[in-house]
Design goal:
alpha/beta, Carbamate kinase, VC0802-like, six-stranded antiparallel sheet, four-stranded mixed sheet, binds aspartic acid, binds magnesium ion
């Protein structure tokens, strides 16, 4: 469950979540709850650590600690009624805050921040939230225990900031958490954080608490993994762009993966990998409308008349075009382009090359544009690559649906719709899995394109 987003205060949300958990437990469901940090806390931790590593200001640490203390105290008082549990939780939180303050002051003195220390600092968000969630459950008269991701058995590689669970985690989690399942205890686990084999804290990447839930659900072979959001599930498009966007009742794993890669930021892109591997259905539900069924993500393709399930928009991207007559028939050009980009850490979002071979287009994150252009330019002399040009005023639109596989006429409809709207298509790409047609348009046309396509395919 997530505490980010909406205007509902953290403490009220926690109390609401605890009440939900109590309800499920009393109905006989066996539960493990995975919690994220309170809204804004992970960002605050990361930004403060980065700032003070540069400016060395202990006063900034003090201010931040005062701020975060108040935030968590407020949440405790709003989420927990029982006075004893309140004081116990405050005691736990005080210890954590004290450690955090010392660590941040250490960073002020050292003036450096390694990926390992960023993980350590950002882990405090979840480690401060879990005792409050657990306390809130106990305050409703239930039993509850909380664990860090590492204690629960999530052991990862050393890739700080984006760590991957090791295979042995699955057995460990099962061994440690399964016995608690059919007991009177409601288990709470910190999402997002884990540890490596030597016990050092790692994190699973931003928004990683869904990933934690998926790992744990897979390990204990849950009937379903529920991801609680503040939206109605996965939508046919971004409701901020398309007001008539609707929640999808059921989609397949493949579609969900396509959608998370292509901008439907409801899910962390890797979230459902463990669920897929263990064939566990994932349900995305709305915390504030728990009776609404949300979106169920399942293994098999869901029979549906809708070939296109969703239309998504990716902003903040840029296009690089590499062109020159000399590229034609020159073996190794693509390899050199990709290797030069990989060397400077540029992630490629989309690729297209026409059969004339004299033109290769690549879409990347806009932030990496300068790095990418410099890397490709310095890789080639002008004999092979005539020119490297770019455009940052573009967006990617992806039309997603497993039913497009083998259905003629879908791309026809996509591009006639754009034609009718007088929208120029700059670049196109469709992988042969046929689950996704992606194309690039100028930023000024993007919203119109998404709306027109959503209209076209919702009929
Ligand atoms: N607290 C972490 C983040 O903000 C993980 C999460 O919210 O899922 O990225
Ligand atoms: Mg852009």
């Amino acid at each position: 469950m997530k505490f980010g987003g909406t205007s509902v205060a953290n403490g009220e949300k926690i109390r609401h979540v605890a009440t939900l958990l109590k309800g499920f437990h009393e109905k006989g469901d066996e539960l493990i709850a995975v919690t994220s940090a309170l809204g804004g806390v992970t960002d605050g931790l990361m930004n403060t650590a980065k700032d003070v590593a540069k400016n060395g200001k202990i006063s900034q640490v003090k201010e931040f600690i005062a701020d975060i203390t108040k935030k968590h105290y407020d949440a405790i008082h709003a989420a927990i009624d029982d006075e004893d549990i309140v004081s116990e939780t405050i005691e736990t939180i005080d210890l954590r805050l004290d450690e955090l303050e010392k660590a941040l002051i250490g960073i002020c003195y050292l003036g450096e921040l390694t990926p390992r220390s960023i993980d350590y600092i950002s882990s405090y968000g979840e480690r401060l939230a879990a005792p409050i969630v657990s306390g809130s459950i106990r305050s409703l008269g239930m039993e509850s225990k909380w664990f860090t991701g590492g204690e629960a058995g999530i052991i990862t590689d050393d890739n700080y900031g984006n760590a991957r669970p090791l295979e042995k985690s699955y057995d460990l989690i099962k061994e440690r958490l399964s016995p608690l399942l059919n007991s009177s205890i409601i288990t709470v686990v910190t999402g997002f954080i884990a540890e490596n084999e030597t016990g050092i804290i790692t994190t699973l990447g931003r928004s990683g608490s869904d990933f934690s839930a998926s790992i744990i659900g897979a390990a204990v072979q849950a009937d379903e993994i529920w991801l609680w959001k503040e939206v109605h599930g996965i939508m046919t498009s971004d409701p901020k762009i398309v007001p008539e966007a609707k929640p999808l009742t059921q989609i397949s794993y493949i579609e969900a993966m396509e959608l998370s890669y292509f901008g439907a930021k409801v899910l962390h892109p890797r979230t459902i990998e463990p669920a897929i591997k263990h064939r566990i259905p994932v349900r995305v539900k709305n915390t504030f409308e728990p009776s609404f069924e949300g979106t169920l993500i399942v293994a098999d393709q869901v029979p549906s008349q809708d070939v296109v399930k969703a239309v998504t928009l990716i902003k903040n991207v840029a296009l690089i075009n590499i062109c020159g007559a000399g590229m034609m028939g020159t073996i190794g050009t693509a390899a050199r382009v990709f290797t030069s980009l990989a060397k400077v850490g540029v992630n490629i979002i989309m690729i297209s090359q026409g059969s004339s071979e004299s033109n290769m287009s690549i879409v990347i994150d806009e932030e990496q544009l300068e790095t990418a252009v410099n890397a490709v330019r310095s890789e080639f002399n002008r004999n092979v690559v005539g020119d490297v040009v770019y455009d940052r005023d573009i967006c990617v639109i992806a039309v997603v649906g497993a039913g497009m596989d083998g259905t003629p006429g879908v791309s026809g409809r996509v591009f006639s719709t754009l034609g009718r709207e007088k929208i120029n298509v700059i670049m196109i790409s469709q992988g042969s899995s046929q689950h996704n047609i992606s194309f690039v348009v100028s930023s000024k046309d993007a919203i119109n394109a998404v709306r027109a396509l959503h209209r076209e395919f919702s009929n």
